[in-house]
Write the structure tokens for this entry.
Amino acid sequence: MSSYTSYHERNYPAFFNGKKLQIVSRHEKHRYIAPPLVAATGLIVESFTEIDTDLLGTFSGEVERTMAPLDCAREKCRLAAAYFSEGYLLASEGSFGPHPAFGLLSAGEEWLLFYDIAEKKEIIVRDVTLDICFRGERLTEETACLSFLEQVGFPRQKVIVKSSQHQPARIIKNLEQTAEVIEAMREMVQQHGDCFIETDMRAMNNPARQRHLLQLGTRLAEKLCSICEQCGWYGFSVTRVERGLPCSWCGSQTDGVLYEVCSCAQCGFEKENYFPKGKQQEDPQFCNQCNP
Ligand SMILES: [Zn+2]
Ligand SMILES: [Zn+2]
């Protein structure tokens, strides 16, 4: 008797098993997002590269990003939907900049939009992380350039050399070797009197972003596999939380989560899940009465 579980014995949701999911990207995102999705759902994942996603905006500044990230992911799916009559689409969009709550720190925000072509329904996953590689520096010296490359982890993390940080007249990408980066830098300084080097934020060139996409893929897989007990549809998940977990010392309400509300986008069924963190009372150190 074999000791492994074959794919056929796994209990995949009938929605997805053997169905096709197209990941709309020219930056190899399927390599990072797909593994947890395939393992959990039985979807057959393909990379769909027909849409020039760079036309909607690039990180390096050739095409300015004017749409909000979620709208941009939605637009990628809308364009790709014209090519298919059934199955599923997935687009992602990232943005990098000051953390929404802690402005001094840089953060990466990533959105995944899963689209059911026949049903015209969306499942969305979003996350913010501080684990990013997002830096840029104006430089003219080779030593400064070498030190930048070392700090960002070149060559696994790729870099882009530009004539200036904003509205650059020239951009050099896809540099593989240290010597090529130095050469590009020298050329820029000679021609434009200046040079700006920055981390390439495209998924295939940014290992930190790859880790984040893998995490989001895992969260999306969990969401897809969560089935509504009333109508049997997929994507039953947390849509809001209610705070007010009582303090274990004085009993007053704290900011701790008392319950989450899971809802079904298909039939509207809702269910409250009390004490989602596994504790029924909050530690007094987080209580505004006991520890103001
Ligand atoms: Zn339902
Ligand atoms: Zn208290």
Summary: DSSP finds five helices and twelve strands in the chain.
